[in-house]
Amino acid sequence: MKIGIPRSLYFYYYGDLWLRFFDNLNIETKVTPPTNQEILDLGNKLAQDEMCLSMKIYLGHIAYLKDCDYILIPRIDNFGSNNQTCTNFLSTYDIASNIFPNKILNYNIDLEKKQSEYKGFLKLKKDLNKSKKEIKKAYLKAKEQVAITKKQKIKENIKKLNKDGLKILLVSHPYNSYDEMIGKPIIESLEKLNVQVIYSDLFDEEKARIESKKLSKELYFKYNKENIGSIMLSLKKIDGVIFLSSFPCGPDSLVNELVIRKLNLPTLNLIVDDLSSDSGIQTRIESFVDILEAKNE
């Protein structure tokens, strides 16, 4: 059996968990390559105009997987009251099952209906032809492994806050920050300018959600709460904030604008689509860094 895993959207939240889980069960996986023009073109052919760039890329990654027994596409609705995910996270399973002929390996997360991640993984036993005991053991072991890795990443991210030089917090969803065509060029540009890049997704999630209330008490998007909470957790040690989102993301367009108006800190709002010019973004980044350096001097 071979499980196909799209390197997009969910992958940047749960990819480590999935790979360790299947590895613990000795099941082969195939992860798509980093986003490239071929994958983006595949996604554009399948996507509707109103879909965000990240969703178009996700569809392209699914289309890239052809020789797998299953493609892993979970349906993630919410993590409890006022911890809602984006509509994309709800709809990907339905969209994929209507577009692609491949078999889909699926589990639900909907805590308001008492459908937890753990229960979702247990339900995979039939499709994976494994016992409940085997699934449980593989899942719990993977969770332990992931917790250790994530803790180390958070530690290294926070450590950068105490280093010399300019420090910029990149407020962005990981599926944008680490995507080869969305966030990677921006991060590389900042690093060439000797900027310490702090990642909004590498903070303690619970602490970030609590801190987010200082900027807005009405938010109900889980990942946006964690993103803006990271601002409050690093506020005294950063020189500026770059907001990065893919056009036309609804939650980001609402939340980022709201936060920018409240921050007494230099900010740069970058919105990327499939027609964005790398040179134009590069110029804006260089100008922003120049402003921060001048301000510090």
Fold blueprint:
Blueprint: E1 2-5, H1 11-24, E2 28-31, H2 37-46, H3 53-64, E3 70-72, E4 75-78, H4 87-99, E5 104-105, E6 108-110, H5 117-122, H6 125-128, H7 132-159, E7 167-171, H8 174-177, H9 184-192, E8 196-199, H10 205-212, H11 222-234, E9 240-246, H12 250-262, E10 267-272, H13 278-296
Parallel strand pairs: 1-2, 1-3, 3-5, 4-6, 7-8, 7-9, 9-10
Architecture overview:
There is one protein chain. It is built from 13 helices and 10 strands. By secondary structure, it is α/β, with parallel strands linked by helices.
Beta-strand portion reads 5-15%
Anisotropy-based shape: globular
Distance between the termini: 60 Å
The major pleated sheet works out as: 4 strands, parallel
Question: What is the count of helical runs?
Answer: 13
Instruction: Give average pLDDT, whole number.
Output: 94
Helical content band: 40-55%
What is the H/E order?
A: EHEHHEEHEEHHHEHHEHHEHEH
Overall tally of structural domains: 2
